[in-house]
Amino acid sequence: MNTVIWWIRRDLRLIDNAALKAADPQGRLVLPVFVLDPVLLDKEAPRRKAFLIEGLRRLADDLRHCGSRLIVRSGSPLDELTRLVQETGASAIYTEEDYSPYARRRDETAARHLPLRLVAGLTFHHPLSVVKQGGTPYTVFTPFSKAWKALSPPAAVDELPPHFFQPPPPDLTSVNLPPTEGSVKEFPAGGEEASRRLERFFRSSVGKYHLQRDRLDLDGTSQLSPYLHFGMLSIRRVIWRVQQIIQGTPNPQVKKGAETWLNELIWREFYHSILYHFPFVQKEAFRSDLRRFPWRDSALDLEAWKYGRTGYPVVDAAMRQLLATGWMHNRGRMIAASFLVKDLLINWQEGERWFMQQLVDGDLAANNGGWQWTAGVGTDAAPYFRIFNPILQGMKFDPEGDYIRRWVPELAPLPLPYVHEPWRLTADLQQRYGCRLGVTYPYPIVDHAAARERALAAYQSARNSA
């Protein structure tokens, strides 16, 4: 029987997997293989690594139920796959194409030495498909979104029968998956959990998404990003479903919610396209005129921001949610990022790096795109003069202070409006509520009004000198 390798990377699923389908398990012996690549696994991101390893365990269980087993090797992907081809006589290696600079270099090298077949599936539309008439990429979201929506959807992948694998040779060696550090209890790994979350979101939240998605105190988002990042859930399956809702619902509220969520999914596609066409954004700002921006170097301020001790409750709540769970509400991400970049005037790359270390859903394309947008240095970026007021952001998106009270427990006893502005507490009120400024909760590390003026001046100076 003809043997081929299914090289698993960011597609930890059996349902709607284009690379697996291309390998055609019904006609060939397909070997499911994951290579523990030290270049990726040695990065400081314990929660994301734990989520990945647990996802591989769930996938291994699914494969056993289908008559196969997961082959795990550790080392350089090129070396390990070369050994596997020699050991098994595999005629081809099928894998889902990845768009990060490292992945593309890795695959280009592998393709020169091995029978590698790249299959699209990481995004709904390939970055090369959503381009202008002359073939140049879009760098502004709105025209990208219009062009994206005008394309025909990719063809569906037929579902595979329950028992479609031939068992691998029993003497084919496989290493154990490594132990992990870091908790991901808020995000149980695997395709089954991803499907449950998707269906729950469609039942309970998608129709209100446009109204609740920015509310920090409500469970109004899908929280599917970790599952999409590692392909435990197919982005094509998600978008097909949401498009069916848009086209089929008679309820205008549900349609509006689904359209708003689809727009967020297209932002994900946009940032993958930017990384694909402009890989240099991984290391520097897209806008060349702001690459020499005069960022402040303050280890103390950066540390206060990382650990939720800035004295601005909504910023601290968001950063502590990240530390506790490995995830942060998207509105919280924008508020925290704006505070670091605009209020503290600290390089956006410091924040980008910290998020990638902490986030269970840390995705190079989306994280980089979001930080460059906030800093005003990327494609289709927020204007430099857009500076979030952390007090007003908290009042608007956490109106009763519930989000702050949950993640900043020392502020839990405070009534409105002090939970948003604890520095307004008099000495008597501090004693009454057990919140001693400078002792149990810090004073603000910067005055927002003064910081805003400082940021505006710095951006204007950088633009003028470019």
Key terms for this structure?
mainly alpha; Rossmann fold; Serine Threonine Protein Phosphatase 5, Tetratricopeptide repeat; DNA Cyclobutane Dipyrimidine Photolyase, subunit A, domain 3; five-stranded parallel sheet; 5 strands
Helix content: 40-55%
CATH class designation of the largest domain? Mainly Alpha
Write the CATH fold name of the largest domain: DNA Cyclobutane Dipyrimidine Photolyase, subunit A, domain 3
What value does the average pLDDT take? 95
Largest sheet: 5 strands, parallel
| Number of domain modules | 3
Radius of gyration: 24 Å
Please tally the β strands and state the result: 5
Strand order of the largest sheet: 3-2-1-4-5
CATH structural architecture of the largest domain = Orthogonal Bundle
- Share of residues in strands: 5-15%
* Strand-pairing-aware structural class: mainly alpha
Point out poorly predicted stretches.
none
User: Which shape, going by the Cα principal axes?
Assistant: globular
**SSE pattern, N- to C-terminal:** EHEHHEHEHEHHHHHHHHHHHHHHH
Polypeptide structure, described:
The chain is mainly α and 466 residues long. It folds into three domains: 3-121, HUPs (Rossmann fold, 3-Layer(aba) Sandwich); 123-154 and 192-277, Serine Threonine Protein Phosphatase 5, Tetratricopeptide repeat; 288-465, DNA Cyclobutane Dipyrimidine Photolyase, subunit A, domain 3. Helix content is 48%, strand content 6%. It is built from 20 helices and five strands. It has helices at residues 18-23, 38-41, 46-65, 77-88, 101-113, 141-150, 191-204, 209-212, 225-229, 235-248, 252-277, 299-306, 313-325, 330-343, 348-358, 364-375, 390-397, 402-407, 427-433, 448-465; strands at residues 3-8, 29-36, 71-74, 92-96, 116-119. The chain has a five-stranded parallel sheet. Strand 4 (92-96), helix 5 (101-113) and strand 5 form a beta-alpha-beta unit. Helix 6 (141-150) crosses helix 11 (252-277) and helix 14 (330-343) packs across helix 16. It is globular, with a radius of gyration of 24 Å. The N and C termini lie far apart (63 Å). The model has no long low-confidence stretch (mean pLDDT 95).
